[in-house]
Amino acid sequence: MVLNAMKLFIGIDGGATKTIARVEREDGTLLGIGKAGPANIRLDPLGAWASIQKAIAAGAHPIPLADPQYQWHCGAGLAGTQVPEAIAGFLALDHPFPHFYIHSDGYTSCLGAHGGANGAVIAIGTGVVAYQIEGEQVTRVSGWGFPQGDEGSGAWLGLAALQQTLQWWDGRRRETPLVARVFGHFQRDGEALIRWANTAQSQQFAQLAPLVIATAQGGDEGAIALLTEAGEEIGKIWQALVARQEKPLPCSLLGGLAAPLMPYLPTELRSHLVPPQGDAAQGGVIFARREATRATA
Q1: Which CATH number fits domain 119-274: 3.30.420.40, 3.40.50.300, 1.10.1760.20, 3.30.360.10?
Q2: What is the pLDDT of residues 183-204, one digit of tens each?
Q3: pTM of the prediction?
Q4: CA 54 to CA 48: how far, in whole Å?
């Protein structure tokens, strides 16, 4: 490393489908944003490193990756960090970054959403996870996976819609607009539905969530009831966060289902909602700057 080398701060948002790296100079000037494939350190640590380095290289161009003329400070929010052994195994692999700080993607999302200030986020997509930062206190609620958790998520909605359809198919429930829409999704072929249901994962179940939303917009009581229940589950997550707050905090909703579920959320939660200021990659930069400051304190 060159003495008094210029610093670069890199925020990395590594998820199950893609990796985004935001590269900033020390003065906050954006050098670039790079993208690459998935970065799940539990499922594929070598692949995660490959994606991270590819994304950083694209964002830092024309500066060569890990150029010793610079200090590279990386703040990474990555999928798979809920397993401590995965973090240790990932960091033990060979890589060119002596200043590489790692946390969950939910943590960096929360940092980015509130510009580094105290606050909470609830991300509602295929799954559901909530993070809250208040000083040094970090709280996580939900995000325990599907089907054992993720209540209120896209996968949860899809499973509930499928269950109603199966109950109709064998005579336990009347056909409703939601049932008709879901069954139509499978070309009204019950055997095809059964085959799909026995192999589908959370991402596939979440593909049925838009059918629930569209049917609710048409006034179907069954679909509206499911969205209402989903809103109540998100409300429970918020209450769990509130119980750990020393003082009231703002909350940002993230994810593809945030907007569709907004009308079904409890009034108290909606009164605390604020738009996110930034994304997880920006949160990663904040994380990197904080850790670099601590290292020199």
Answers
A1: 3.30.420.40
A2: 999 999 999 999 999 999 988 9
A3: 0.88
A4: 10
